[in-house]
Amino acid sequence: MRAAAALVALILIVCAPARADDVPLVADLSSHLVAITTGFTGTDVLLFGATDGPGDIVVVVRGPQKDIDVRRKERFGPIWVNATSVSLKDVPSYYRVASTRPLAEFAPDELQERYQLGLQNLRFNIPSTNLPPEETGAFRTALVRLKTENGLYNEEVGSVNMMSSRLFRTELHFPSNVPTGTYLVEVYLFRDNAVTSAEIVPFTVSKIGVGADVYDFAMNYGAIYGILSVMLAVAAGYAASAAFRRT
Amino acid sequence: MQIYLPIAEMSVNIFLILAMGGGVGLLSGLFGVGGGFLMTPLLIFIGVPPAVAVGTQANQIVASSVSGVLAHMRRGNVDFVMGGVLTAGGFVGSGLGVWVFNILKRLGHIDVTIGIGYVVFLGIVGGFMMYESLPIVIGKPLPKAFAISERGPGRHMWMHGLPFKMRFRRSKLYISALLPLTVGFLVGVLVATMGVGGGFLMVPAMIYLLGMPTQIVIGTSLFQIIFVTATTTLLQAAVNQSVDVVLALLLLIVGVVGAQVGARLAGRFKGEQLRVGLALLVLVVALRLALDLVIPPRDLFSLGGE
Asked: Chain B residue with minimal CA distance to A39?
């Protein structure tokens, strides 16, 4: 419900009437496609924009939502076993927040919560479990921590650079394990402890080239892919044997 | 130099993968094992998702086994009749194994079952081989009371009373076909539940249960492994889409070369020396996996179902 309210608020802000020559905030990306090719080792995308005056900028990047199981090991006799598991729904597969200053200095807690700014304000849909709330909280914290260790969640205070109180820019980093799908970059302009303007820039992370063809073939024609893999292996084994026989 | 793996969805250092493939391939040719029990934990350790690690290494083992078997064939070290009977038992066994695997998965205990399975079987097999082979290698016989067995007539009397006797010329055996069928079946069950080629179980079973000569065992085991791993690759690709052909190619290009070198080296060692070597390797892996089960994990939490 609160998420829906936040969305409505966001749409209202984004669609707020403004004269073309008097837009308080514009932003765009250096590229709207992150292409995962065979040599992909992660990439940086430049987000840049301009404001109509001083203010603070917050940039939030969200990857496609997924359901994730968080498991906890417990001691069972002499060995450690995955005992308790909590599944969290609608978890962003990628989340990054960047800002000009620490959020607490210009964004009230209530707004941080409403727009889910910062890792501690991320809201996940946790289906009812028979665990006490503080227990599910531990699973939530573990998810954020593990995602951060994987390089998929990140909080960067001060990484948005402002120039002449008008132009701003920040580098968004995507590691090699970045999930594919449609991403949304939300840009907020804060003034006097309130959101003055906001903009959403979508972009795509997608596999391109030979790797993408292999992936599509494996997903769509699994059995043929398997037969070809086995034939390839037999041929390679035979070729190596023949090569060694001659020497 | 980094390369992106399309199915594993991650980028890896190409030289690390080549070194792993070559090293495991060498051991595979030397000891007549597929190397899955080494490669799967290694791949998972560098961050490859477990399902992709299992599916891909099965494919890679097909290549190194084909290459290894051809090298052993040229020296006449493959008993095709025995290999065929073992494979027939193996197909039935792996079918049952897949069924058991799914039940355990539903109950949510597959990971720990695989871990315990590895430790128990690798521990028993490695310990037994070490116990029997070490005295021969260091030149001191075991005290008579502790000697486990001697190959030859007079051993396993009840086995010789079984029907359906077959002559296995290459192995110099005249035994009931039920014996290799049962061995193939039991190993097949374990292969499917533990996701490996099964050479580390098949080799000692052939030596100690069937009484085959060690030199023949290695080639015949590789012959049998080809069929088991080819079936596994097909099933994994068709059902789980978890065979990464780019990773498999990298592993098998160096793996087949390693297997060739290993097969040549194997000719220079005595059977007992190879057995002690394999026993050591198996025990080290078992110990490592046992520690993983017992040592309190660095992180109690893990993510799944992504």
From this structure: B3
Q: What is the ipTM of this complex?
A: 0.77
pLDDT at B139 over 70: no
**Contact (CB, 8 A) for B201 and B208:** no
* Residues of B with Cβ-Cβ distance to A236 under 8 angstroms: 63, 66-67, 249, 252-253, 256
Q: If you average pLDDT over every residue of chain B, what do you get?
A: 79
Answer yes or no: do A85 and B108 touch at CB < 8 A. Answer: yes
Closest-approach residue (CA) in chain A for B229: A230
3-class SS of residue A15: coil
pLDDT of residue B143 exceeding 70, the answer is no
CA B185 and chain centroid, separation: 14
3-state secondary structure chain B: CEEEECCCCEEEEHHHHHHHHHHHHHHHHHHCCCCHHHHHHHHHHCCCCHHHHHHHHHHHHHHHHHHHHHHHHHCCCCCHHHHHHHHHHHHHHHHHHHHHHHHHHHHCCHHHHHHHHHHHHHHHHHHHHHHHHHHHHHCCCCCHHHCCCCCCCCCCHHHHHCCCEEEECCCCEEEECHHHHHHHHHHHHHHHHHCCCCHHHHHHHHHHHHCCCHHHHHHHHHHHHHHHHHHHHHHHHHHHCCCCHHHHHHHHHHHHHHHHHHHHHHCCCCHHHHHHHHHHHHHHHHHHHHHHHHCCCCCCEEEECC
Q: How many interchain CB pairs under 8 A, A with B?
A: 186
Indicate the DSSP class of residue A103: G
Q: What is the pLDDT of residues B77-134, one digit of tens each?
A: 889 988 999 999 888 887 787 677 767 766 666 667 777 887 888 888 788 878 877 7
- pLDDT, tens digit, for every residue of B16-30? 999 998 888 888 778
Domain residue spans of chain B: 2-294
